[in-house]
């Protein structure tokens, strides 16, 4: 009787082994399935980056940022570059949210650089610029300008700039930075101009009582 029960028990254990082995394989198969999915997920950011790069390229082509024809390139190189390697600036500065409620003053300075850098697909320009203004306070700004020209219009150019500020008034001084964006007008001609929006940034609680961000308008004429 005992032998019969023992035989039955052994047969039962042997009959359950395949089931246990199948169950033990399920986590392994699940892990293999997860690992097989991971490479597909890791490629998603790469595909997104490719799409973004393609969209940016399409936008650049849509705005016709392409090289000028030979005749206009020769003209812009002569009048826009050689005649304007160094230029004199004069114009007007308007500060909007100053402690006295806004101020307007004269600006004067100079710049040096190349208005037209002829690349294969895009015409650009770059200049180092110094400007002094005396609106609410005496401000010295030192920075750079970047111009992006379009092939279909010589009148307007996209203008981007930035740099550092040294501002003083009544024996008090503060150092800040600025960025500006606007349009350049007739940059191929020896007498041209820029119409710019400028955002100036100062430290909090500066001695001049300036806001951390001061808005302003810069009207700058360039004279050869």
What is the strand and helix layout of this fold?
Layout: H1 2-62, H2 70-81, E1 86-95, E2 103-118, E3 123-134, E4 138-149, E5 156-169, E6 172-185, E7 191-201, E8 213-223
Shape: globular
Q: Please state the oligomeric state of the protein chains shown.
A: single chain
Helix content: 25-40%
Low-confidence stretches: 18-31, 37-45, 59-66
Which structural class do you get from the secondary structure elements?
alpha+beta
Number of strands: 8
- What is the rounded distance between the termini? 118 Å
Note the run of SSEs as H and E.
HHEEEEEEEE
Q: Give the biggest sheet.
A: 8 strands, antiparallel, barrel
Short synopsis of the structure:
The chain has 224 residues and is α+β, with helices and mostly antiparallel strands. The chain is 33% helix and 45% strand. It is globular, with a radius of gyration of 34 Å.
Description:
This protein is an alpha+beta fold. It has helices spanning 2-62, 70-81; strands spanning 86-95, 103-118, 123-134, 138-149, 156-169, 172-185, 191-201, 213-223. The chain contains 2 helices and 8 strands. Strands 1-2-3-4-5-6-7-8 form an 8-stranded antiparallel beta barrel.
Q: Which features does this protein show?
A:
single chain, 224 residues, alpha+beta, eight-stranded antiparallel barrel, 2 helices, 8 strands
